[in-house]
């Protein structure tokens, strides 16, 4: 397979996963805000932090209100990580390589983009938001099903899976990092009555609540949720599972020694993490997540150096760029 084709498929998968995860975040946050009293210091700003786009948001908006955040993450074509931008980039990456995948996959990506573009042009009103976000999530999942059910096992499928799993692991760390900052003990008197509800929102953001109840069989508690989302080997959206899948997919490719070694190192950090210590120290958890995201950037860099060519003809938001945005914001919180 040509490296250019491999790179396009890799980024197509990352963008589809990014659009789905962003839609899920907005949906869960909308429902959570209805359940929490207005005096709690949550709101919409954490979503901007989760996506690592604080600098881009503040350049265009002064207030982190519902209207600005929803538009920025759904319909802002100048925002590289918005749903509409992610799907436009996924569509463009696939357009030039659609001859290597079944036609139905291209048609689904194209239709998804056109549908979201139509909603974005008309505005994502609060009344239409829930159905809009559900349609994005279902369409992305339908696309994943099409890939699983129609694309032959080979290099094209492998690079799609690499992109999906790396983006998924990155989003999981962002959700855990930013949302847990308001859950771990900083203002216990105010947050304690709603702690379980907030941890439930973390699980629901990753479609992991039912699996947590089935496998953990305990009430929703911070340490148990962290262990489940970081280390569970069977949850598709846990970091350990995503990295395990990454490592397996790499065994199907030539010249995989360096990328596979990088994945193994990052996964070892996850599996060996002291969850109790992280759960009781927001600063330790934040530092640990930062180190994981640096590890994800290293995985991307080794994949790029091994398999891809540098070509700026198709716009991309690289792991390194999004990581630098997140770290820039993290530095602002070091003295909190």
Automatic annotation (TrEMBL):
Q: Where is the composition biased (Low complexity)?
A: 318-328
Residue span, DUF403 domain: 1-308
Spans traversing the lipid bilayer: none
Any matching Pfam family: Alpha-E
What InterPro entries does this protein's entry cite?
Answer: ATP-dep_Glu-Cys_Ligase-2, DUF403
The annotated region (Disordered) lies at: 316-336
What is this protein's record name? DUF403 domain-containing protein
Which species is listed as the source? Answer: Vreelandella titanicae
């Amino acid at each position: 397979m040509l490296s250019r084709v491999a790179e396009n498929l890799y980024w197509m998968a990352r963008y589809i996963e990014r659009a789905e995860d962003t839609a899920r975040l907005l949906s869960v946050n909308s429902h959570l805000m209805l359940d929490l009293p207005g005096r709690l210091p949550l709101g919409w700003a954490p979503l901007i932090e989760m996506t690592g786009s604080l600098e881009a948001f503040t350049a265009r908006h002064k207030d982190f209100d519902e209207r600005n955040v929803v538009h920025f993450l759904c319909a802002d074509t100048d925002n590289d990580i918005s749903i509409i931008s992610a799907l436009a980039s996924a569509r463009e990456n696939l357009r030039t390589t659609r001859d290597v995948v079944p036609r139905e996959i291209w048609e689904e990506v194209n239709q998804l983009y056109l549908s979201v573009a139509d909603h974005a042009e008309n505005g994502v009103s609060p009344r239409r938001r829930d159905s809009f976000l559900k349609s994005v999530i279902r369409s992305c999942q339908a696309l994943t099903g099409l890939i699983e059910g129609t694309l032959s096992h080979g290099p094209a499928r492998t690079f799609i899976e690499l992109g999906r799993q790396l983006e998924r692991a990155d989003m999981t760390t962002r959700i855990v990092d930013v949302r847990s900052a308001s859950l771990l003990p900083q203002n216990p008197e105010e947050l304690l009555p709603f702690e379980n509800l907030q941890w439930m929102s973390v699980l629901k953001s990753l479609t992991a609540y039912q699996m947590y109840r089935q496998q953990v069989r305990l009430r929703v508690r911070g340490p148990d949720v962290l262990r489940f989302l970081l280390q569970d080997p069977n949850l598709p959206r846990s970091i350990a599972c995503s990295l395990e899948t990454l490592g397996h997919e790499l065994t199907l490719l030539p010249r995989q020694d360096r990328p596979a070694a990088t994945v193994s190192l990052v996964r070892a950090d996850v599996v060996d993490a002291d969850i109790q210590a992280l759960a009781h120290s927001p600063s330790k958890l934040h530092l640990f997540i930062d180190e994981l995201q640096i590890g994800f950037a290293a995985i991307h860099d080794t994949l790029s150096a091994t398999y891809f060519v540098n070509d700026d003809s198709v716009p991309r938001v690289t792991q390194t760029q999004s990581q630098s945005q997140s770290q820039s914001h993290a530095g602002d919180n070091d003295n909190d």
